[in-house]
Amino acid sequence: MKPGLPLIRHYLQFKDFRAEEYAYLFERAAIIKKRFKNYEKYTPLVDRTLAMIFEKASTRTRVSFEAGMYQMGGSVVHLTTGDSQLGRAEPVEDSARVISRMVDIVMIRTYEQSKLEAFAAHSRVPVINGLTNEYHPCQILADLYTYIEHRGSIAGKVVAWVGDGNNMAHTWLQAAEILGFTVHISTPSGYEVNLEVAGLRDASSFKVFDNPMDACRDADLVTTDVWTSMGFESENEARRAAFADWCVDAEMMAAAKPDALFMHCLPAHRGEEVSAEVIDGPQSVVWDEAENRMHVQKALMEYLLLGRIG
Ligand code: CP
Ligand code: NVA
Questions:
Q1: How many domains does the chain have?
Q2: Active site residue 124
């Protein structure tokens, strides 16, 4: 980290940033994306290094952070549990002290949020949450940016969450409170969101529905995720039974507004949480969503390392 920089900012959960910071990030993401599409070189992170630590599998998160960092002139170190001392029980605090003396920014995908927080507490450089059991803020950053690209402001809109009360659901709840929209949540019994984890000020930004069709009624965006998140594979069979009615299909999409979008963070299982007709259909923006991970994360890294530009 360059001397003289103000207090380190981390991005550990969605509520770490304020609404006006999100507005700034979305503006920057649009500029950065446009430059990329026009093959314009933009390398503000020359000589900066990103360490990426993966304790769970990834395609999108790895490619988007790695490609994004190289495009901005920086470089990347990729670590996994299997090929580092993290997998041999070196304390996370010691790992943070060491890694953060050698790189400028760190992205971590791990299990418990508490592990990410312990790393951040001992890091000299900004730390980004690349997914934990509790939250997935970079994905929601991309989803919101994608919504805005297609439909404009999300303020006052309704997002239907159909499925597991998981890391994605908790993050949508945080985003709704900060950005002023409403989440309609429908989860099978026993798989509800954990409101303590979501950590909301009050219950005004979400409504709970037993029937997923009711959650989708008049929604502006319908979104879902896998029935079994990483780390919960032993529950797979029980979940397949419990979630059978929580498949976003054409009938559910028909309950939403006619111009409603469909999103999924991917990877998806066609025929489980979403029908092929919906995810491969005209309302689906899942490929834009995946691509936008890179553009918003470039804006995020720029912000954490260089502050506001201009
Ligand atoms: N959506 C998402 O985070 O994808 P990966 O697991 O492939 O990184
Ligand atoms: N909820 C999923 C998201 C994968 C990107 C998981 O945690 O596995």
A1: 2
A2: no
Mean per-residue pLDDT for 31-49?
Answer: 98
Q: Which atom of ligand 2 is nearest to the CA of 231?
A: 8
- Please name the residue ranges forming H helices in the chain: 19-37, 60-71, 92-102, 113-121, 137-151, 167-179, 195-198, 212-216, 236-242, 250-255, 276-279, 286-306
247 is catalytic: no
Residues 221, 118 share a domain: no
Confirm whether 138 is a catalytic residue: no
> Quick check: pTM over 0.85?
yes
Which one-letter DSSP state was computed for residue 166? S
Question: For residue 283, what is the domain's CATH number?
Answer: 3.40.50.1370
**Which domain does 183 fall in, by range?**
139-289
Of the spans 79-83, 87-91, 114-118, which averages the highest pLDDT?
114-118
Cβ–ligand 2 contact at 274 (below 6 Å)? no
Question: Is 3 domain-assigned?
Answer: no
- With respect to residue 71, please indicate whether it lies within any of the assigned structural domains: yes
Pocket of ligand 1 (CB under 6 A): 58-61, 131, 139, 265-266
Distance 305 CA to ligand 1 centre (A): 23
Q: What is the pLDDT of residue 5?
A: 44
Q: Same domain for 208 and 267?
A: yes
Angle at 51 between CA 11 and CA 54, to 5 degrees: 80
The answer to the question of residue 7 being in a domain is no
Is 265 among the catalytic positions? yes
How far is ligand 1, taken at its centre, from the CA of residue 6, in Å? Answer: 31
Instruction: Tell me, in angstroms, the distance from the centre of ligand 1 to residue 130's CA.
Output: 9
Answer yes or no: do 229 and 90 share one domain. no
Which pair of tokens denotes residue 276? 């092929």
Question: How far away, in angstroms, is 3 Cα from ligand 1 center?
Answer: 34
Is 2 inside a domain boundary? no
Q: Are residues 174 and 273 in the same domain?
A: yes
DSSP designation for 14: G
